[in-house]
């Protein structure tokens, strides 16, 4: 395989909010991703496919802690793949990584560490808005897979905090949502 891609996957509202999609953060308006039922987070809605067998997942500490409480006890094809895939945690403090199999701490600085990972495989960034913002600021994101939920909140943390040019590569309906895939636009 050539160099891997850094792929950001996010649940996002129509107005660009990514904050607290599952309600675990207790934010006003949180839980918006479940307004159309719990199916939204039980399968491969982001169409990761074989990446779940060959890539690595990158998460910030808070996202990893939420996932590590929910996923290890699930058992279906998607949950089994998510539990098997290597998970790399971005954190200044070491969480109890034994809480979820195949988890390790990112070594070194974020952008350089992610570049090292992407030399070997695709890196899927799940949630972790601060990690996404830092990678985007360094122009280190190759692809965004956005599951757009038909809800607008008019307040909350946004996915994009600086201008970025993207190129739409595909769009498909996934239940009540739309999966939109974007690549970085060609650099001038």
Summarize, please.
The protein has helices at 51-54, 61-70, 77-84, 110-118, 129-137; strands at 6-13, 56-60, 87-90, 103-105, 123-126, 143-149, 166-174, 177-184.
What does this structure look like?
The mean pLDDT is 89. It contains five helices and eight strands, in the order E-H-E-H-H-E-E-H-E-H-E-E-E. It has an eight-stranded mixed β-sheet. The chain has 188 residues and is of the alpha/beta class. The protein is globular. The two termini are 27 Å apart.
Task: Reconstruct the topology from this structure.
Blueprint: E1 6-13, H1 51-54, E2 56-60, H2 61-70, H3 77-84, E3 87-90, E4 103-105, H4 110-118, E5 123-126, H5 129-137, E6 143-149, E7 166-174, E8 177-184
Parallel strand pairs: 1-5, 1-6, 2-3, 2-5, 3-4
Antiparallel strand pairs: 6-8, 7-8
In what range is the share of β-strand residues?
Answer: 25-35%
> What is the C-alpha radius of gyration, as a whole number of Å?
16 Å
Biggest beta sheet attributes: 8 strands, mixed
Spatial sequence of strands, sheet with the most strands: 4-3-2-5-1-6-8-7
The quaternary structure here is: single chain
Counted by DSSP, the helix tally is 5
Name the shape in a single word: globular
Terminal CA distance: 27 Å
Number of strands: 8
Helix content: 10-25%
Estimate the mean pLDDT confidence: 89
List the secondary-structure elements in sequence, H or E.
EHEHHEEHEHEEE
Spans of at least 5 consecutive residues with low confidence: none
Class derived from helix and strand content: alpha/beta
């Amino acid at each position: 395989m050539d160099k891997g891609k850094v792929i950001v996957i996010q649940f996002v509202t129509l107005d660009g909010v990514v904050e607290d999609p599952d309600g675990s953060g207790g934010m006003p308006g949180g839980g918006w991703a479940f307004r159309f039922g719990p199916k939204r987070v039980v399968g491969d809605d982001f169409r990761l496919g074989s990446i779940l067998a060959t890539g690595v997942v990158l998460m910030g500490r808070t996202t990893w802690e939420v996932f590590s409480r929910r996923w290890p006890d699930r058992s279906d094809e998607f949950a089994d793949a998510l539990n098997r895939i290597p998970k790399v945690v971005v954190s200044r403090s070491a969480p109890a990584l034994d809480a979820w199999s195949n988890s390790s701490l990112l070594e070194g600085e974020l952008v350089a560490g992610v570049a090292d990972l992407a030399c070997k495989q695709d890196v899927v960034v799940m949630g972790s808005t601060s990690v996404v913002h830092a990678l985007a600021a360094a122009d280190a994101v190759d692809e965004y897979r956005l599951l757009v939920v038909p809800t607008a909140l008019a307040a909350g943390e946004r996915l994009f905090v600086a201008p970025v040019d993207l190129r739409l590569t595909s769009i498909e309906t996934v239940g009540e949502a739309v999966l939109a895939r974007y690549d970085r636009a060609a650099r001038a």
